[in-house]
Amino acid sequence: MVSITWIFLGSLIAFTSATPTSRSGMFVRSSRSDVPAGFAHQGTAPADMSIPLRVALVQGNIGGLEKVLDDVSNPSSSNYGNHLSKEEVEEFVKPAKASVDAVNVFLESNGIKATTLSPAGDWLGFSVPVSKANEMFDANFAVYKHIATGQELIRTLSYSIPSSLKDHLDVVHPTISFAVSNAKNEISFTVPNGTFPSKVVPLKHNGTATQSGPQPASVPASCNSIITPACLQALYGIPTTPATQSSNRLAVTGYTNSWAQQADLSAFLAALRPDINPSTTASLQTIDGGSNPQGPQYAGLEANLDIQYTVGVAQGVPVIFISVGPNNSDGFGGHLDLAQYLLSMSQPPQVVTTSYGFDENTIDPNAAANLCNAYMQLGTRGVSMIFASGDGGVGGGQPKSCGNFIATFPSTCPYVTSVGGTQGVPETAAGLSSGGFSAIFARPSYQAAAVGNYLNRIAPLYAGKFNPNGRAFPDVAAQAENVEIVNGGVYTTVYGTSAASPMFASIIALLNDRRIATGKSVLGFLNTALYANPGVLNDIASGSNPGCGTNGFPSLSGWDPVTGLGTPNYGALASLAGV
């Protein structure tokens, strides 16, 4: 794992402070010792090339907001469900006037007039030539190529800020972040004639194949070969009664020009949810030049999967497809822009599912913490942020050669719910399911007992390969193998935790519908309640997640870093939700 120089960022993060460079009056804000694996240095960036940069100011009272999140997310609290408004959250987040003034004076002294990029005023943006960026931040910006994709990034391995800004300026971004999004699913087979096969051979992964977990008598035998909405309804007890509340919304985020096709959704519903009108659609919102062109040539495997398993499982819940386009410079492929877009809404969608992420060791811990804090803000406003954990076992978002284990972000953010994967009936852990422990974020208090118990049981397994004090993930799981979709008019199965995330999100959206119908608030941030009530999930106690030349972590009874607390039990979750 790449060695990174950490700094203090907040109550959940423990770093050591960097040492100043020899340049007088400057303080190293962040650095890394080398380029992340998979990138190649291409040479010095042209001095006159203009690059977009963003700066994050120190937020006003983020510790206070974290306490609010815990309070409104704890079912035993009298404030449970009393989510904050947009304006109330911004009062916690907005930087102190002294910070705003100090940073603006620094920028203006360098001939820069910045643009405010966030509702709370904590992010500013501007563009400068490489030579100016190097001068301002004592940096050495160069060109780096991501070997697998050919994508080129302008980055530096270290940057500094004036020592006078240490308490005011938190992040300059993107500087040492090398974030490249992980694709989260692959085709396992296709059926050109457009008919559903009667038998499909499941994908094989390294690791144990022992099956465990519940197997309701009503689960069709075909679910051992292929997963459909009917399988999920039987496995997890999901009702077929349509949702009724129009104010309840479920958002699917789309990146990397993955587009959802209405023709494919209609074919999916006609074949697998004939009780839903096949003309049912998801509404479209776009940012950063996003779009959603229609036609078989535009079919996006990821987008089709996510839309079909939200519209097709969360029956009656209004679904929004948010297409994030390529016109962004946020250093997170649009994830930061998406978070700020949601925060700018007076009424954001109450559940958001995302099937994309990054290997944690490629990103700047400072920047990751600021994006994570945006998810905290959304949680205090009643938004459930749900992310696929990844498909590389203990090796990160995708399989790769590695020494130390690699975690994935945003799954390691303590304020999101990370979804791992299972396979088969009865369910066992899917070998692809990414899981482990953060090297950036400390373990949150809601995980202390469950994760501590697991670590005590496996010690000293893999000592030194992971951070045992880090935020552990995933939190929950759902089916992630041989999942049936329609893509470009072809019936196909896919595998990946990107299938599990929209499945779990759909169940939360259905529960929100029932809560709204009875005059209750939506569920919002889920983890505090789930870890306090693990019995509302189906415990998965076999399998593992191989990677980095190991068998990975074993799935055991209770929480584990493969399937989390387990898979959904709708009836038990509904009881916990009071509906």
UniProtKB/TrEMBL annotation:
Name the GO terms of the biological process aspect: proteolysis
Q: Listed GO molecular functions?
A: metal ion binding; serine-type endopeptidase activity; tripeptidyl-peptidase activity
Coiled-coil stretches noted in the UniProt entry, renumbered to this chain:
none
For this UniProt record, give its keywords in alphabetical order, as a comma-separated list.
Calcium, Hydrolase, Metal-binding, Protease, Serine protease, Signal, Zymogen
At the top of the EC hierarchy, this enzyme's class is hydrolase
Reaction(s) catalysed (UniProt annotation): Release of an N-terminal tripeptide from a polypeptide
Top-level taxon in the UniProt lineage:
Eukaryota
Residues in Peptidase S53 domain copies: 226-579
Cellular localization per UniProt = Secreted, Extracellular space
> InterPro entries from the xrefs?
Peptidase_S8/S53_dom, Peptidase_S8/S53_dom_sf, S53_propep, Sedolisin_dom, Tripeptidyl-peptidase_I
Q: State a single Pfam family of this protein.
A: Pro-kuma_activ
What positions does UniProt annotate as the active site of this protein?
A: 302 (charge relay system), 306 (charge relay system), 498 (charge relay system)
* Entry's cofactor comment: Binds 1 Ca(2+) ion per subunit.
Listed binding positions for Ca(2+) are 539-540, 558, 560
EC numbers listed for it are 3.4.14.10
Q: Which cofactor does it need?
A: Ca(2+)
**A single GO cellular-component term on record:** extracellular region
Q: Where is the signal peptide?
A: 1-18
Concerning PANTHER family, the annotation shows: PROTEASE S8 TRIPEPTIDYL PEPTIDASE I CLN2, TRIPEPTIDYL-PEPTIDASE 1
Query: What does the UniProt function comment say about this protein?
Result: Secreted tripeptidyl-peptidase which degrades proteins at acidic pHs and is involved in virulence.
- Name of this chain's protein: tripeptidyl-peptidase II
The protein's organism comes out as: Piloderma croceum (strain F 1598)
